From TrEMBL:
Protein name per the record: Coenzyme A biosynthesis bifunctional protein CoaBC
GO-annotated molecular function: phosphopantothenate--cysteine ligase activity; phosphopantothenoylcysteine decarboxylase activity
Cofactor note: Binds 1 FMN per subunit.
Named cofactor requirement(s): FMN; Mg(2+)
Pfam families: DFP, Flavoprotein
EC number(s) from the headed UniProt entry: 4.1.1.36, 6.3.2.5
Binding positions (CTP): 282, 292, 310-313, 332, 346, 350
Region (Phosphopantothenate--cysteine ligase): 194-407
Organism: Ramlibacter alkalitolerans
Residue span of region Disordered: 286-305
Functional summary from the UniProt entry: Catalyzes two sequential steps in the biosynthesis of coenzyme A. In the first step cysteine is conjugated to 4'-phosphopantothenate to form 4-phosphopantothenoylcysteine. In the second step the latter compound is decarboxylated to form 4'-phosphopantotheine. Catalyzes two steps in the biosynthesis of coenzyme A. In the first step cysteine is conjugated to 4'-phosphopantothenate to form 4-phosphopantothenoylcysteine, in the latter compound is decarboxylated to form 4'-phosphopantotheine.
């Protein structure tokens, strides 16, 4: 919960009903350790008061370029120089047009223009009615802002305050917060494609029952998020789990091991990195009954027989691209004892360059974990931390070992 520690963010509000979400966003930024300086346009004050934003940011809000509180009377210079980033949320259609033109007749657009463009990035969270959003003028302005170096955070879709339904809503505060956190992460995997398997598989016995493994999917989802934060194009192939898909990650839902293998084999031929965190069921029932298997009154349980499932990781690791190092494969081992020995043996058996061990029962369903990285050089321990913090460290370790994109 301290992903923005040491960061100073200018949060700019412009005129739009989504200003109500800016209050929650401000609180989220502060909770993550950022200091937040709110700057509001006159129009935004029609929707939310500076009092609210001051209370949430714990700093007086700036609303005018003539603010005499600054000794040199240059808030546009002072505020933009101390910022790590300027985030405009909500950014109205009008404010986008003003930015495109380089207008500077009020404080917020003035400080955007005055910012040191190479070091203080401008993040934009548009918010407007769907027709305004779809209008060629807005789309043209978006393209120009991107060409001028701004980062466009996209919009949400759905019911709008005006009663219409479509694209143009401001993203939810939690989504924007994830985007801002991602923005500050080093882009160690920019331009790479990463495929992650996550969660358990479920192998049906009949329409009602099946066998499965313990796995919340949290570690795999954290790795998918961390890889995305590092700039990768990420696909998570998920068994049955109840987890929100990380921002910007494509998700393919599967149930059984065979479905997971098919999805993995469809995605990995274009990938640079494959991380197998899924807890795949080793066996599946040899036959799947089309109807519920009933008790027959004899007191005897049904005779069940099993077939071994394909080993997804070993299959991918044997592929031609993995063998010549174009696809870097990472395996996981959840053990209950002798972690180092088991992890070493598993690395050899699966034929992967990097194997990550963890003690299964002490991590199932938890938000934190402890990892052991085993490669040809030896063993490195990543001490107990949140799964997301560990995932970021693991991504850095993978980036160091995997071949640069396109080689
Ligand atoms: O053999 P074991 O299940 O302990 O190996 C664990 C590693 O292999 C994990 O990375 C897991 O995702 C992967 N695995 C797999 N397909 C299987 C079994 C395991 O990809 N059928």
């Amino acid at each position: 919960m301290n992903d923005l520690a040491g960061k100073h963010i200018v949060l700019g509000l412009t005129g739009g009903i989504a200003c109500y979400k800016a209050a929650e966003l401000c609180r989220g930024l502060v909770k993550q350790g950022a200091t937040v300086q709110v700057v509001m346009t006159q129009a935004s004050e029609q929707f939310i008061t500076p009092v609210t934003m001051q209370a949430l940011s714990n700093r007086p809000v700036f609303t005018s370029q003539w603010d005499a509180r600054e000794p040199n009377n240059m808030p546009h210079i002072n505020l933009s120089r101390e910022a790590d980033a300027i985030l405009i949320a909500p950014c109205s259609a009008d404010f986008m047009a003003r930015l495109v033109q380089g207008r500077s007749d009020e404080l917020l657009s003035l400080l955007c223009l005055a910012r040191p463009i190479a070091s203080v990035r401008l993040l934009i969270a548009p918010a407007m009615n769907r027709e305004m959003w779809a209008h060629p003028a807005t789309q043209r302005n978006m393209a120009q802002l991107a060409a001028d170096g701004a980062t466009l955070l996209g919009v949400g879709s759905g019911l709008q305050a005006c009663g219409e339904t479509g694209d143009g809503r401001m993203l939810e505060p939690q989504e924007l917060l994830e985007d801002v956190i991602a923005f500050f992460q080093p882009k160690l995997l920019a331009g790479r494609k990463v495929v992650v398997t996550a969660g358990p598989t479920f192998e049906a016995l009949d329409p009602i029952r099946g066998i499965t493994n313990h796995s919340s999917g949290k570690m795999g989802f954290a790795i998918a998020r961390a890889a995305r934060e590092a700039g990768a194009d990420v696909v998570v192939i998920a068994g049955p789990v109840r987890l929100a898909t990380p921002r910007g990650v494509r998700r393919v839902d599967v149930t059984s091991a065979r479905q997971m293998l098919a999805a993995t084999e469809a995605e990995t031929p274009q990938a640079d990195v494959f991380v197998a965190t899924a807890a795949v069921a080793d066996w599946r029932p040899a036959t799947e009954s089309g109807q519920k298997i009933k008790k027959d009154g004899s007191g005897q349980p049904p005779a069940l027989s099993f077939t071994e499932n394909p080993d997804i990781l070993a299959t991918v690791a044997r592929s031609e691209r993995a063998q010549r190092g174009a696809l870097f494969c990472v395996g996981f081992a959840a053990e209950s004892h002798d972690l180092v020995d088991n992890a070493r043996a598993k690395r050899e058996r699966k034929g992967v360059p990097l194997l990550v061990g963890n003690i299964g029962p002490s991590t199932f369903g938890q938000d934190d974990n402890q990892l052991l990285l085993v490669d040809a050089q030896g063993v490195v321990e990543l001490p107990r931390a949140s799964k997301l913090a560990l995932a970021r460290q693991l991504v850095a370790e993978i980036a160091r070992r995997a071949r640069p994109a396109g080689t």
